[in-house]
């Protein structure tokens, strides 16, 4: 069986890719997500990725680099630009690791998410594959969106409510919490 390095953004998003890849490849998981803020969230997602890997008996490598300071150096916080940067740092690091450690293929659980820019992830994956001489295995894991959710609930895996960076946390909660607090405590 050929080997493949699976970049894992979190536990729930890894479930369906593992189910698809395990019959074709010898999988090694690779957690590398310095864009997940704050630290508590990073380690919660890491812990739940470990639970998924243990459940499926997937070998794994965990890189718990925390990139908040670097992320702030990148000042363009408009969603499209910051997400390109965020995909690129993760895929580049994964391709490099795959190349340095003898993997023939690499891929990413980012291809499972309906909320990410799928086309861009594929393009970046293929480009970094060429740069580091490791083949990017493209698969549209979004086909298993519902299965992944169902299984993660059955396994009681933590399911995050925002994408990862501090800006996505703001977009997810700011309006909702502000409305709630105002209507509860500060009625006009
Ligand atoms: S919204 Fe998600 S993909 Fe975009 S920069 Fe933030 S963590 Fe990365």
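Sequence proposed for the structure above (188 residues):
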């Amino acid at each position: 069986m050929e080997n493949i390095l699976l970049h894992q953004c979190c536990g729930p998003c890894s479930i369906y890719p593992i189910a698809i890849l395990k019959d074709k490849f010898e999988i090694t998981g690779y957690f590398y997500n310095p864009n997940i803020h704050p630290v508590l969230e990073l380690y919660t997602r890491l812990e739940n990725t470990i639970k998924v890997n243990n459940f499926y008996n997937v070998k794994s490598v965990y890189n718990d680099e925390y990139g908040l300071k670097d992320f702030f150096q990148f000042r363009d916080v408009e969603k499209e630009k910051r997400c390109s940067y965020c995909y690129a740092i993760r895929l580049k690091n994964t391709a490099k690791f795959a190349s340095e450690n003898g993997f023939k293929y690499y891929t990413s659980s980012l291809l499972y998410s309906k909320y990410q820019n799928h086309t861009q992830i594929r393009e970046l994956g293929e480009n970094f594959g060429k740069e580091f001489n490791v083949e990017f295995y493209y698969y549209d894991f979004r086909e298993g969106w519902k299965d992944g959710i169902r299984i993660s609930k059955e396994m009681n895996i933590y399911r995050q409510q925002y994408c990862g960076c501090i800006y996505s946390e703001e977009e997810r909660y700011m309006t909702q919490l502000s409305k709630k607090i105002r209507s509860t405590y500060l009625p006009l």
